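A quick aside before the break. I want you to see a complete sequence-to-structure record at least once, exactly as it would be stored in a machine-readable document. Don't worry about memorizing anything.
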Amino acid sequence: GGGAGERQTLTLMEFENRRQDAVNRRRMTTLLRGPSLRPVIARLEAEVESGLLCVRPSLNLAADVGQRDNLLSLLGCYNPLWLRLALEAISGEMAPLGAAADDAHALRKWLDKRFLAPIRLDPAARPAAVAAAAGRHPDKVWEEARAAAVGETHKCIVRRVLCVLLLLDRAKETTVLEADPCLFCPDSTIKSTRQMAIEFARSFLSGGIGDLAKHLAYMDAPLAHAQTAHHEFNFTVQSLATDLRDGARLCRLLEVLEVASAPSGGAAALRLTPSLRLPAVNRTSKLKNVEIALRAMEAAGAPLLRHPPDLHGCAKLLIEGHCEATLELLWSLICHVALPRLAPVGIVLDEARRARRTANTDFAPAAPDGAEQPAAVAALLCWVQSVAAVYRLRLSDLTGGLRDGRGLLALVHFYVPEALGDGFDARAELGLQRPAGAEELLLEELEAGQWLRPVEGDTGRAAEAEARKAAKRRLSLFASSLHALGGVPQLLIAADAVETGPDEAVAAVLLAHLFARVMELSTQTRAARLIQLSGCARGKRCVDPWKLMKQCVFAIRMQRRRRSSKQRADARAELRSRVVLSRAVGAWRDRVLFVESVRATRTIQAAGRRRRAVARLSALRAAALALQHFLRRQAARSLAARASTRIQSAARMLGARRRLQAARLAAV
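That is the input. The structure line, written in C-alpha cells, reads:
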C-alpha cells in the first residue's frame, strides 16, 4: 500500500456499485425528508418531547443489557439491506459494511454502538453540576443528572425507532430498491410493520397511547406492508428443465423485465405474482400459473410456440418440461422483450451509423436483414460489424465472427479502452499490422469455415495450436475487461474459441448487455469530460492573465448583450401581456356594463308595467265601488217603495174594515 497521498483507482464495476449505493441512499433520504413523512415525524417528535410517547419508567435502555439486546433483536427482524439504508438516512452516517456472512452482525454492532448509543455523563463535569446546584446534596444532584441523561436517551431511541418503522414501511411500498427484496428476514417471527409497531409498544413503551399502529394511522401514517408467502418464495432458477414448470419463476421473470408492469393505455401497473397459486403442488395450479405468464407474454408482443399455436397447448408443454418448447419460448421472450429493452433497435442503428462514419467506407457493413432474423439481433449484428470495420475487421455473423475474440476486443477498445489495461496492444491483438490484402484473404477463409490453412507436417499443428492459444487469450482478456466494466454477464468462455464459436442467442444476449453498459458509460464519460474541461479552463487562467482578461471582457460584453436582448424580449413579452390583459379587462368591463344596463332596463320596464297595472287596478276598483254604491242605492229605493205601498194598502184595508164594521153596527 502507499501513503495517504496515493491516488486510489477503482474499476468501473466498483464505481458502478458505489454509484448505485449512493443512488439508493439519496432515494431513502429524499423519502425521509419528503412531504409525506416530514409532517408525521415532526408530530411524533413533539409527542415524544411532551411525554405522550415514552419508555416505561421501570426500564433503563441505557444500562439494561438484556432489554437492549431485545430491542436489537427486534430491529434485527428487518432485512439488513433495508435496515442499513434506513439507519444511514436517519443518522446521516455510513454504516460499516462487513463480509457477506457476518453483515448482519456488523450492522447489529454498529446499531448498538452508534445508532442507539446512550448518553454518557462525563465524570469531570460533576463538580460543575454540583456547584450549579448550591445547597443540595452532591449525590442527589448527580443522580438527577444521570436520570435526565437516561430520559434523553429514551427519547432519542423512541424517535429513531419510530422513524425506522415509518421510513421502511413507506420505502417498501414505494419500491425504493429496484430488486425489491423482502423487508423482513424469512426466518423472523415478525412479518409486518404493524406487528413490529405493536411488539415495540408492548415491550418498551408505556400505555399512554394504547395501540401504536392505530395511533400512527390517526396521524395519516398507516403501516400497510405485510410480508406474505409470495414475497418469501424462492424464485431462483437452478434448472430450466424443472424450475419453470410451475410458472412462478416465469411470471417473476416477466416482472423483472418490466413486461407485466408496463402501463397499457394509462392503466395501473399489473402485478403477476400476487395472482399466482403458491406453492403449486398440483397440475391445476401449475397450469393456471403458466397461463398467466403466457397471457402476459402475448400482451408484451412476444409470440408463443409455433406448434401448438394455442395457449393451453403451450402451457401443457411447459408443465411437462418439454426441452425444445421451453427454449423456444425463452428465446422468443429474449428477442421480443429483453433485447429491445437492453438495446433499443433505433439507438443501436444510430450508434452503428456513427461507427460507420468513423470507419473506412471500404469496410462499411451491409444493412441488417430483419426478415431472416429478429430485428434486435439484426441491429446488434449491424452494430458489431460497424465497430469492427473501424479496425478493418469483417464479421459475417455472431457465431464464427466472434470465435477468435478480436471482434469483442474491438468493441471494448472502441468505447472503453482503459478496461483492457495499459499493456494492451491493439495492433498486435487485433491484427492491424498485417497488410489489407492478407487480412481480407484470412477473413474470407474464416468466413468459409476454414479455421486454419492446410499446412503439412509439424508446422501446421504448431500454427493451429498457436491460433487457438491466441483466441483463448483474447477471450480471457475480454472476460477480464467485462469484470472491470461491471454489469455485463460472463457468457463466453475460452472453450468458445474452438469449433464453431459461441451460440447466436448467447452472443446476442452478451452484446445487448455490453451495448447497454457502454452507452451508460458513454453518458458518464461525456459528463466527466465536461467537468475535466471546466477544470482545465480554471487551471489555465493563471497561465495568461491578459488573455484571461480579454476573455472575461468579451464574456461580460456577451453577457450584457444577452441580458439586454433578454430584457428587450422580456419587455416586449410584458408589453404584449399588458395589451392582452388590458383588452381582456376592457372586454370584461364592457360586458359587466352591458349586463348592468340590461338589468337596469329590465328593472325600469318592470316598474313601469307594475305602475300601469296598479293604475288599472285602481280604476277598476273605483268603478266597482261606484257600481256597487249605485246598486245599493237602487236596491234601497225599491225597498222603500215597496214598504210604502204595503203600508198604504194596509192603511186602506184598515179604513175599509173600520167602515164595514160601522156599517154593520148601523144596520143592526
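Two observations worth writing down. The chain has 22 helices and no strands. Residues 545-667 form the longest helix (123 residues). We'll return to this after the break.
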